[in-house]
Amino acid sequence: MQQPKPPAPGAPAPADVIDVEQAEAALVEHYPRLVRLAYLVLPPGLGRNRRVLTAHSVTQRALPRGRTAPAPARTAGDPGYAYVRLRVLRSALDAGLPLRLSAWPKRAQLPPLLPQVRGLRLFPKSGGADELALDQALSALDGPARAAYVLRGLERLDDTAISTTLTSAGCTPEDAAAALVRAAGVESQPALLNSPEFDPCSLHARPTDLMRRRQHAKAGLAAVAALVVCGALLGLPADDWGPDGAAAPPYARNPAGQAALDPSKLTRVAAGVWQTSSRTDFSVWPARGDLTGDTELLRRALAVWARPGESVQVSATPGTPAGAPPGPAQLLYAGEVDQARVVVLYDGLRIVRYAEPKNGTSGAALDFARVDGATAGQASAVVLDRSDGNVRYLTAPWVSGASVRDLLKPDAAPLKLTRTSDGVTSPFLSPALAESCTSWNALALTDSSGTRLTTDLGELVPAQLTSGRPDAPRDSRAADWSATACSLAAARSHGVRSVNSWAYARQPLPEANGTAEWVCTRAETWQGGSPRTLALFRTPGAAASVVAAKSETSPACGSRDPVVLAGVRWKSRAGTWYLVAAGSKQVNSVTAAGSTGAGNLLAVKVARDAKVSLKGGTASGKQVTTLR
Predict the structure, then answer these.
(1) At residue 562, what are phi and psi to the nearest 5 degrees?
(2) What is the pTM of this model?
(3) Mode of pairing for the β-strands spanning 587-592 and 565-571
(4) Bond prior to 250 in cis (omega within 30° of 0)
């Protein structure tokens, strides 16, 4: 996003007044940035649809009412931009003030007159786990603290400029100073503030109440319909514990759709079915949890699944449809987990998790994950809850033991996890949200066939870890990932079902510098496309590997094309630069910089900044290109 332009060297100082043309030019040039700032500062309690419309409304009303206006306090950059930014900030803070009977409401406290979108609900694109965590942290702050955080991270203002801006926007100096302190309590993540999660100019659209719109067209029955509807609404309870909780008003009534919303029609698998079934996937999981008989909770979960309201946080892994259930689903779990009530459902294609606070339905969440074709190792656990950096799982009925292994410390003893009678594990530190890679926890699950490793990549179902040739992978050991575990961070929140690590070559380095190891990791997704493939290079004595090449489209290093070739510039201890390259066993020649090596290895001297093409070949004559 374009940053506000500083004044040119030697330009005259900003005038004491801002004319409307100067303010309009700044507003048009930086409109997306100003709307994003307003959206982030507005109170989250408005709901995402109203926050979007209000953000556009307060930004469009930021121009001076007359031909000129007093310039804001002197700041670096364009004074026109500083003026409209201050107007936007002041209106966004006003929108968070409570309405008082003793005073006229301010314009920003009321629903926006313009812009208006009839027949649609608008909301920004959903982000990942990082964006969700930041949004929750900002929701806990008041308006001035949110404004201070956004001005610091998005506008890159220092504390003095932030305090001056907040004071100009109507805060007292004491409130501005306190806001800076509260904002400093939230971890600074300026890159996330520019993510699509907080972009009110890039939106998704969903229909409003279609049934009511249709009824409005029947003018002859309008009076009777209004009387009936008003009478029904007056009979509803005043709190948010209605029968459908946080669900939006219904818009479709058909036999299949109504059956899918009936808790009594949920499929409940008996406890021992998995022992005699030929399948070992989610279809044979029994219904577990102490709330499986709570009909009202299950009704709310199904209603929100079919019609998530504006206040519901909805997320879906890439390639996963987030629509209503096609028919009665299977109940896997319903119970209390930490401070929430959680329901886990399965419809043959997706795992769906509904969670609501214990004290109401405000803040309910709905998560979707695609799991079609899951194997026993990929259907062994589901995430029940993430809080305070920890994760808690519900394990499959065939799992007999669970423990945690730190992949960066494969020789350390595993940490045994306790489990309830329903298969719920105790919480442990998750790598899904970690910013550094000082450790990487994997969940080790034991059943009759052995122990499998899985890891949390920020989704409902942990990714299975395997090792070996892509056409014949095996269950991983912790030692298989000791030097490459940190590369798993590249696969977070991409709908990954399994990640395979393959040590495809070992290479003696020139000048007797020891032996390097080449490893290829490939993350396969549930949707089948967009695999994350990395070629990693590790020198002797190095604690971790470095990325030599990566791709999101190549079939290399996969079961359909178990061939890989990669190269990297490397400097010897004597200071000489080389291009070192290695291919898998099928590669019998490697060519680069005019040199061809017999076999799958090559090391040739090159200039540090030289552009060198690299290619290889197999015994059958097939040309092999580098991973990219």
Answers:
(1) -75, 55
(2) 0.61
(3) unpaired
(4) no
